[in-house]
Amino acid sequence: MTIKKHIPSRAEHVKSDYSDQVFKLALWSNIYHLRKRKGLSQTAFAKEAKVTQAIISEIESGDYNPSMDMLSKLTSVLKVDIWTLTKQHIKWKMLETAGYLMTKIENLDILKIMKLLYLSDYEWSQKNNGQKLTELNYIRRNRWPFDKDIYQLDNVFLSQENTYQSPAIKKYNELQKNEQAFLDIIIEKYGHMSSSEIMRYTYTTQPMSWCTIGGDERMWEVIL
Fold first, then answer.
1. pLDDT interval class at 3 (50, 70, 90)
2. Which of 97, 120, 134, 169 has the greatest CB tally within 10 Å of its CB?
3. What is the pLDDT of residues 116-132, one digit of tens each?
4. Does the predicted model carry a pTM greater than 0.70?
5. DSSP states of 77-139
6. How many separate domains does the chain show?
């Protein structure tokens, strides 16, 4: 029997090349942002990872494709897993916003963070012609606004004890000074409230105003 060899079409080549390029861009970007979030220079990062500064520079500029062994060294220093390092659509603005909230409010759980992010985005959009502070898109899920990308927090801030640790962010790359000042106002207004109190308050905001607690109005619809 003759086996016909499959010759990839030009479209398949383009798709493969594009996917590979997107993956590489995500990797370079994630390494850069995670290094910055830890307040490490390229030299300090390289020293901890036991590689040269030139290699780190080449990785972040896209001129060096790290091996799995190299990625293992980098994740060890950055305190994240390989999945986080290679994820294509990490929402850095959301992570920095959540990280800022964690540095100001003790004992935050993921549900309270979710609701505080929603109120931050809602009130920011009221002042900025509908533009949101983070990159989240909220649906109505169960009793509160929700975006599944909130679970990216688990891969960055969740400790082995399953508690969210206040991040040691020394420099914010996405979150601007005026946005931090705005978040301070949000924290003053809502930071003292319990998760259930904030949940009830969300029903007074325009996107949730015609929903009822326990009802199914607009369930799974995008509301903000």
1. very low
2. 97
3. 999 999 999 999 999 99
4. no
5. HHT--HHHHH-TT--HHHHHHHHHHHHHSSS--HHHHHHHHHHHHHHHHHHTTT--SSS---E
6. 2
